[in-house]
């Protein structure tokens, strides 16, 4: 697909994050099942529900752009999720596994934060005014999810693991 | 390599970010050459110098841990840099290329921010007290680099691209 102009790049990034969210949606239930801490389990389950809404928001963005909703493989998110999977499988210590899953989930959140941040800025510049609040809503949720994970980590999970 | 305990995970993440920084060090001069805006060129060149210092900090962390400095392939950073490379090659419009390179660089910064954030927290928990200021220094630089790129994007580069 073309990446010549900012319009092209905008569409590419929407497809990239759409793919990423769909992969995350598939992975979160597995993480919730593997989580030892009930608070962490709840956080993953809650974020799975949020992710469904984020995917719907992205489908509305595709509609605004007059495009069919479809993703494009994002190697960054694949790499982050693959590493998270390895941690889930290999960490035999339950507390270390929880701490590792938090770290993997935060890497996902930060990837999404940077992409939505860019998309909000570009949507404004390109005059896609109706897309802005949809992308901003997703960005705000990712920030909140990242903060929640930091609180969980600092609130004791890491301490138990060490 | 083992990822059973939090100690194992800590070492794995140090190796992961060491690999990432070395890849970034190789990529930044290419991005500086491709940048159209002089401010962006300067930002990439400045961050290349910072990255050299960050690699030295990580080598000190390896020394503290009594380990030989070596990286482990990080697919997340490879994916992010590969996408950045595609943007550099394909964006024919100079302003769009600059905007795309900023987005790619910010994805790198956010990956590093989340990893250093985790490493600082874990170093504290694991009692690697001497490693904490070295990892914190790198984290602070990545935050500052990300903010600088946001300022550059908002200060007109995106506007020109649209």
Explain how this protein is built.
2 copies of one chain form a homodimer. Chain A is mainly alpha-helical. Chain A contains 5 helices and no strands. Chain A has a single domain, classed as Up-down Bundle (Ferritin). Chain A is 85% helix and 0% strand. The termini of chain A are far apart.
Secondary-structure element string of chain A: HHHHH
Q: For the report, how would you describe the main beta sheet of chain A?
A: none
CATH superfamily of chain A: Ferritin, core subunit, four-helix bundle
The percent of residues in helical segments of chain A reads over 70%
How many helices of chain A in DSSP terms? 5
Radius of gyration of chain A: 16 Å
Beta-strand segment tally of chain A: 0
Shape of chain A: elongated
Which regions of chain A contain 5 or more consecutive residues with pLDDT less than 50?
none
**Mean of residue pLDDT of chain A?**
93
Structural class of chain A: mainly alpha
User: How far from one another are the termini of chain A?
Assistant: 47 Å
Q: Biggest protein-protein interface?
A: A-B, 52 and 52 residues
CATH class of chain A: Mainly Alpha
In terms of DSSP E residues, the strand content of chain A is under 5%
Q: What is the CATH T-level topology of chain A?
A: Ferritin
Domains of chain A (count): 1
The CATH architecture assignment of chain A turns out to be Up-down Bundle
Oligomer: homodimer
């Amino acid at each position: 697909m073309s990446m010549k102009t900012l319009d092209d790049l905008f569409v590419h990034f929407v497809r990239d994050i759409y793919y990423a969210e769909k992969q995350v949606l598939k992975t979160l239930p597995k993480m919730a099942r593997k989580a030892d801490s009930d608070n962490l389990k709840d956080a993953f389950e809650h974020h799975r529900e949020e992710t469904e809404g984020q995917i719907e928001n992205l489908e509305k963005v595709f509609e605004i752009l007059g495009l069919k909703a479809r993703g494009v493989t994002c190697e960054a998110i694949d790499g982050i999720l693959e590493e998270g999977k390895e941690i889930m499988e290999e960490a035999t210590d339950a507390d270390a596994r929880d701490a590792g899953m938090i770290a993997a989930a935060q890497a996902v959140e930060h990837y999404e934060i940077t992409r939505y941040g860019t998309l909000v800025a570009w949507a404004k510049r390109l005059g896609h005014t109706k897309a802005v609040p949809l992308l901003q809503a997703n960005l705000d949720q990712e920030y909140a999810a990242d903060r929640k994970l930091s609180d969980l980590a600092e609130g004791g999970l890491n301490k138990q693991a060490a």
